[in-house]
Amino acid sequence: MRMYDLIVKKRGGEALTKEEIDFFIEGYTKGVIPDYQVSALMMAVYFQGMNMEETLNLTMAMANSGDMLDLSAIHGKKADKHSTGGVGDKTSLVLGPMVAAAGAPVAKMSGRGLGHTGGTIDKLESFPGFSTALTEEQFIKNVNTIHMAIMGQTADLAPADKKLYALRDVTATVDNLSLISSSIMSKKLAAGADVIVLDVKTGSGAFMKKEEDSFALAKAMVDIGNGAGRFTTAVVSDMDQPLGFAVGNALEVKEAIDTLSGNGPADLLELCLELGSHMLAGTGHAPDREAARELLEKTISDGSALKKLAEFVEAQGGDSRAVYDTSLLPQAAYVEEIPSPADGFVAHIEADEVGVASLLLGGGRETKESVIDLSVGLILKKKVGDSVKKGENLAQIYANDRGKMENAANRFLSAYTLRVLPGTEAVDSPVRLEFSDSPVEKRPLIHGIVTGDKGSR
Ligand code: URA
Asked: What is the pLDDT of residue 12?
């Protein structure tokens, strides 16, 4: 078999066979096939696409290119959740303990974040001593004993995807549905869970900004998951504004603790109930989603989910006292308020830009080597549809450096659009004003569910 022939075939719009896909993935992972030939093939795929069979074969080839986690020693069906990523997305920190407290094993592999705020692992490191560097044995033991463990991605998880994604990133070939869905799902399949619930975000802070693209990605990933024999469901959820109020690592951990204590933001709780109900119904720990929701709600009202978080933190070396005393989490030196320049209603929040404001404070990574400041970030006080008075707080900003704080506050303000009545006076500010007397419509939190054989909105 020759790589040249595969490039010609795909360039002409033909489908590649499983043998051909295995050949190029194996050759590329081993370094036998050079970058320039794989780049050419990726560009051909970009223009010609891949059918479902090719996409599934590509996913399996990448999943099998390194370690496949064997979780068979865990009792019962294991559930995992994956989010395509967003601003203020601390869902795993709330959902994991809720689902585990309801009895289902949560075996999760997570990453660190690049950009915006940190990833789940960074956030969890707000608990002094917490580590996700678990061996496979420890990981399995923890899931069997306390029903929950989170492990960092091993270096050898889907190495073909790691190489291919880096290549696509610099050859303008990221943006293809087959390539994105196979890339994400290869890592999920290699991580071993039986039940996979995908949180596919849509909106200004999401990887997929348009709703139709988010549904298409959800459908492609659900088809791959089910095609690979895993029970896979996707929830398309809103990321047109940050989730909850907190953006920034330790601030998000505190918000997760508040939510598990019954005092969290409604959108975050609702999303966790939605995702969790699919996980519990999928693992068979609830007869249906309605019963699953009731079980999950009970884990909050009886305190068992909060207790589960403490057990989980303790089991992974962290100081679990911080679950009950959040002053033990990293604290920023300065806290200031960001006032609104005018009376009006919040019409739009550019979620990405709120993420950038947190990044400017030091809360995210600009490069792989950056060290994150876990204590900094923002607490939003006003979200889309809320009314605000001139001088009232739009947010609180948490910083350790006054210069960075000012920069970040301006960036944050530029993320907001206020709808104000014609003739409204405003102080000079980066906030955008739109003059109108019509009301602001709120977007739904859940845009739809995609299951194996159908999609619903
Ligand atoms: N995230 C991934 O892991 N892969 C892609 O191709 C795009 C987003």
From this structure: 98
SS3 155: coil
Q: What are the backbone dihedrals phi and psi of residue 82, each rounded to the nearest 5 degrees, phi first?
A: -130, 135
Ligand 1 centroid to residue 371 C-alpha, Å: 23
Looking at the chain, the whole-number percentage of residues with pLDDT higher than 90 is 83
Angle in degrees, CA 306, 240, 432, rounded to 5:
125
Across the chain, mean pLDDT equals 93
For residue 290, the one-letter residue type is: E
Our answer on whether the CB atom of 158 is closer than 6 Å to any ligand 1 atom is no
With a cut of 80, say whether residue 368 has pLDDT above it: no
Report all structural domains of the chain as residue ranges with CATH numbers, in order of start: 3-49 (1.20.970.10), 79-326+445-456 (3.40.1030.10), 333-435 (3.90.1170.30)
Q: How many angstroms does the Cα of residue 162 sit away from the middle of ligand 1?
A: 10
67 secondary structure, DSSP code: B
DSSP letter at 54 equals H
Report how far ligand 1's centroid is from the alpha carbon of 174 (Å). Answer: 7
The C-alpha atoms of residue 204 and residue 186 are separated, in whole angstroms, by 26
Instruction: Answer yes or no: is pLDDT of 456 > 60.
Output: no
Tens of pLDDT, residue by residue over 200-226, are 999 988 989 999 999 999 999 999 999
Task: Determine what percent of the chain is predicted with pLDDT higher than 70.
Answer: 97
Name the closest-CA residue to atom 1, ligand 1: 184
Q: Which active-site residues does the annotation give?
A: 82, 161, 168, 183, 187
* Phi then psi dihedrals of residue 399, to 5 deg: -145, 165
Which parts of 211-339 fold into alpha helices (H)? 211-227, 249-260, 266-283, 289-301, 304-315, 321-324
Query: Is the pLDDT score of 114 beyond 70?
Result: no
**Residue partners of 342: CB distance under 8 A and separation at least 6:** 390, 418, 420, 424, 425, 426, 427, 431, 433
Residues 180 and 174: beta-carbon distance below 8 Å: yes
CA distance 250 to 47: 43
Q: Could you tell me where the DSSP H helices lie in 172-248?
A: 177-190, 211-227
